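ligand=zinc ion
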Amino acid sequence: MKIFTFDTTLRDGTQGEAISFSVDDKLVIAQKLDDLGIDYIEGGWPGSNPKDEDFFKRAGELHLKHAKLTAFGSTRFAKNPVEEDRNVRKLIEAGTPVVSIFGKSWELHTRRALGITEEENLTLISDTVAYLKAHGKEVVYDAEHFFDGYTANPDFALRTLEAAQKSGAAVLCLCDTNGGTITGRLEEICAEVRKRFDGVLGIHTHNDSEVAVANALAAIEQGFTHVQGTMNGYGERCGNANLCSIIANLELKLGHTAIGAEKLAGLTAVARFIAELANLPMRRDQAYVGQSAFAHKGGIHVSAVLKDSATYEHVSPAAVGNHQRVLVSDLSGRGNVLYKLEQHGLAGRLTEDARRELLERIKQMEYEGYELEAAEGTFELLVREALNPGIHFFDVEGYEVSTRVNVSGSRSTATVNIKANDGVHSATATGHGPVNALDVCLRKCLSALYPRIADVRLTDYKVRVLEPKKGSAAKVRVLVEWSDHRKSWSTVGVSDNVIEASWSAMVDAIRLELMRLTEHDDSIEKAVEDYCWGV
Ligand SMILES: [Zn+2]
C-alpha cells in the first residue's frame, strides 16, 4: 500500500535543542527531501517567527517536483473570529497548497490551557478547518495529545476528530505529543479510531519512550496511511520518530511503498547531508543510514559475512544507499585483514609470512591505541610497506621543537634531520605553532628530492585523550586528514607527547604519498577509495 510520508524536520525538527537552520539551509533541505520523494514537507510555523515566514516567502525559489509544501499552525484563538485570527491569516499568506493545524484532544488541556468548554473547542476546530478549506487548502488536522486525551476521555477525543473531518480535513493525524505512549496501547487506540473513521489517518509520534518508530509502524499496521517524522529523528526533547528508519522499514520489511525502491537508495546520502547542515555528528549506530549500520568488527562475524552477507546483515546496505564496512581491529581474526587486502587487490601479492607479520603489527598498534578504522592512510601504508619491503624513502634521525611565548606573541621553531637516499638533510624553520614548524622543516628536507610532496596538505586535525585518568600525562591519539588535490586520507599517531603523535601521523602521510607516486596502481586506488568511504 502507498504510505504518504510527511517530513517535519524543518518545523518539529528545529525544536531540537541543538538544531538551528538558516532560511538558506531550510530551502536546500526542502529541495533534498523533494528529491528523496517525500510527499509533504512541513516548512515551519509562519505565525510563530519571522524566519519561518521568510522561508515561505522564498519558497518560490524551490523547484519541487513531487512534494507538497506545508505550513503549520494552530486552530484559531478562542477570542478571535477565524477571519480575523492572525495565525490563520499567516497560514493562508504562506501560499502553500497544504496547511497542517493542531487542535486540542485532551479535555485537561482544553479546560486548563485554553480555559474553554468542550463545545467551544469543537467550534475552534471546525471553524479553522472549514475556513482553510474554503481558501483552497488541503488540511492536515494534527490531533495534539491524542493518545493521552483518548485515555482520559475517549468520547471527548473522538469528537474533536469528528469535528475536523466533517469540516473538510483531508487527513486526521493522531499525535503522541508527549511521546509517553507504549506501542501496545497506541495500537489499540489506533484500531478503535480506524474502526470509526474512514479516510486518511495519520500518525505523529515522539521518542520519549524510545518507541517512536515502532509506534508509527504499529499505526500503519492498523491501516493508517500517512506518517509524520523527521530526518535522523531530530526534534524536541528525545526527538521525533525517525523518518529514515520508518521509510526503510516500510519499504524493506512491511511491503509498503513510501518513496519507492529507487529513491530509497538515496536515503543515506540525504540523512547525512542534513546532519551536515545541522552541524551535528551523524550517530554512527543509527539504523540503516549510520556509518556503523553495516560495519563488522568481530572476527567470526567477518569471516561469515564474507561468505554470505545475509549471515549478519538484516537487509542489503545498498538498498538504503549505505555500504558494508569491515573494520580492522584487535578484535578481529585474520578475516578482517584478509578482506581488506582483497579489497585493495593485494592479497595475492603478499607471502604467507608477510601476511602474518602485518597482522601482528596491526594488532600491536591497535593495542597501543591506534585506531586504524579511522586512519585508512596509515593502514594503507602498512600494507604497502609489507608489499614492498625494499622501498625506503627516508629515515628520521631526529627533530627538535620549541615554542617561546612572550608579550609580543608566540613563536615556534623546529629543526629536523632526515637521512634520505642521497644523504642527510637538515632544516630549521619557524611556523604557526610546533606542528606547522615541523611540517615546514620536513618539506624543506625532502622537497628537492621529492618535489611532489608539496601537493600534500593538512585539512583536519583531531586529538583524543586515551587515558583520561592520567590527566595531562595521558596518551593521546592524533588523527590527521590530508589531501593532495586528487583525494584525501587520514593518518594516525599515538603517544603521551602530542607533538610526537602529530609528527608520526605527518611522516606517515608523506611516506604514503611517496609510496603512491612510486607505485601507481588504479585498482589499488579504487579499492582504497571504496574503503575510505565514510570513515
Ligand atoms: Zn511533534
